[in-house]
Amino acid sequence: MAFRVSISIFGKSLRVPRVANVSAPLENASPFLRTAEQLSLLVKDPDQPENSKVLRVAIIGAPNAGKSTLSNQLLGRKVFAVSKKVHTTRSRALGVLTEDDTQIILLDTPGLTTPTKVKRHQLEKSLLEDPWNTVKEASLVVVMVDVSDKWACNKLDFEVLKCLTQYPDVPAVLVLNKVDMLKSKSRLLEITADLTCGVVNGRKLQVRRVIKPPWAQSGLRKEQLRALKTQQGWAHFKDVFMLSAVDGEDVETLKRYLVVGAKPGSWQYHSDVLTDQTPEEICTNTVREKLLEYLPKEVPYTMTQAIDLWHDRENGELDIAVKLYVKKESHMKMVIGQAGQMVARIAREAGDDLSTVFLREVKLRLSVKLK
């Protein structure tokens, strides 16, 4: 059940028909383009309607808040990799939702992290830079918070606060995710008051004691950073949504909000564009998702991939062969598994997901090699 908060009223949002489940192919959808066709379509002039509208939406939050899951539901197809482990998304990815005369550009970002963590875990620099660069070019920011994390749900992540403070002129909405996992729904009111400093769209929430709004932000000087560390929330959210990103009907409420909020402007992409990712990038991200899901601790983070084969059969099937590189022989044993069962499982499930994305049969083969 999706809820939207506006000013001081907590009300049940109007439901509209359920969007397609992202785990199943959409009817009447065309097969996913091959690489050359995809690149050609990305540079093709948009098929601009007469009264076009556009909205660039940056989705940010702490690692594992559900950003990619939300993006997939909004698009109606699983385009972005999702796992329960942090840093599944390694760089900014773009999704395009086109409805009638409106184009919503979704900017799915890595979870906000710190330079110290990037260095400690040998993460890509893109995890540090992409969320900030994305907010700078957005016309709306969606801040996602995992309310099932009882240790962190009452305080915005410090990196999120820094990002919002750096770009205070970009409108932002708060999305409380995984509300289905919260036993006491009354907790949502307390969490909302904390994360908004008791203020939504400039009006006080009549929920509980109102927390004094923070000082005006104009930059990120040292004294301001010190003040941010004691700040729980952000007093400038325009709206608050409470939903479960895995529920298409819940997400439809937010989707309608985004469509209505689009402003007159020229489309940036042709209406057939779904993402700026190439098919090969989607393939490697999907394989990484399964590696993160089934392999322990640091193993999947130290692995790299190389596509050895990409062959379109005459019958429409797609043959893909991917080589997985591991750093240690012990890691190789874990990836292969007993009698090859683990690598076979990863290949089978990743292949099934790719078949759903590309809307045709995908035969995926994986091999493992020491670096």
Task: Label the overall shape.
Answer: globular
The helix-strand sequence is EEHEHEEHHEHEHEEHEHEHEEHHE
Query: Number of DSSP helices?
Result: 11
Tell me the major beta sheet.
9 strands, mixed
Q: Separation of termini? A: 48 Å
> What radius of gyration results from the CA coordinates?
21 Å
Mean pLDDT: 80
Q: Could you estimate the helical fraction of the residues in percent?
A: 25-40%
Number of extended strands = 14
Which regions contain 5 or more consecutive residues with pLDDT less than 50? 6-31, 208-219
Overall SS class: alpha/beta
**DSSP strand (E) fraction?**
15-25%
GO molecular function: GTP binding; ribosomal small subunit binding; rRNA binding
Pfam families: KH_2, MMR_HSR1
Membrane topology: Peripheral membrane protein
InterPro entries: G_ERA_dom, GTP-bd, GTPase_Era-like, KH_dom-like_a/b, KH_dom_type_2, KH_sf_prok-type, P-loop_NTPase, Small_GTP-bd
Secondary structure: elements and pairs:
Layout: E1 3-6, E2 9-12, H1 35-43, E3 53-61, H2 67-75, E4 93-99, E5 102-108, H3 115-120, H4 126-136, E6 140-146, H5 158-166, E7 172-177, H6 187-195, E8 199-200, E9 203-204, H7 222-228, E10 237-242, H8 248-261, E11 263-264, H9 279-294, E12 304-312, E13 318-326, H10 329-336, H11 341-358, E14 362-370
Helix pairs in contact: 9-11
Pfam families: KH_2 (PF07650), MMR_HSR1 (PF01926)
GO cellular component, one term: mitochondrial matrix
Subcellular location: Mitochondrion inner membrane; Mitochondrion matrix
